[in-house]
Specification:
This protein has four helices and no strands. With 106 residues, it is mainly alpha-helical. The longest helix is centred in the first third of the chain and has 22 residues, at 5-26.
């Protein structure tokens, strides 16, 4: 598992950033405008948590999950990056970092 320490840290950081962004989006004045961001954050946080459990277990299916996680992280980075809010920009960076880590590990 020590081989996967950096990847697990990226997955955890991404999930946390997505949870934070999702909650912060719910506090924005125009929540409806943030609907896609909120939903994408939710899905990204979930896939990062699931991926971490597959990686920690050294599952034979982890490469498949890593590929899906990379795609969702990239989509979340794109969505969050399209908003000017600090929490969205921070989330976009965490998602991009996680996507890169997943791509390398897959």
């Amino acid at each position: 598992m020590s081989d996967h320490k950096a990847l697990l840290e990226k997955l955890a950081a991404c999930a946390a950033a997505c949870e934070h962004c999702m909650n912060a989006c719910l506090e924005e004045d125009d929540v409806k405008m943030m609907e896609n961001c909120i939903k994408t954050d939710r899905d990204c946080a979930k896939i990062c948590q699931l991926t971490a459990s597959f990686v920690a277990a050294d599952s034979p299916f982890q490469s498949h999950i890593l590929e899906i996680c990379e795609k969702i992280c990239r989509q979340c980075a794109e969505e969050c990056g399209s908003h000017d809010h600090d929490h969205c920009q921070e989330c976009a960076r965490a998602c991009e970092d996680c996507a890169e880590a997943c791509a390398v590990a897959a």
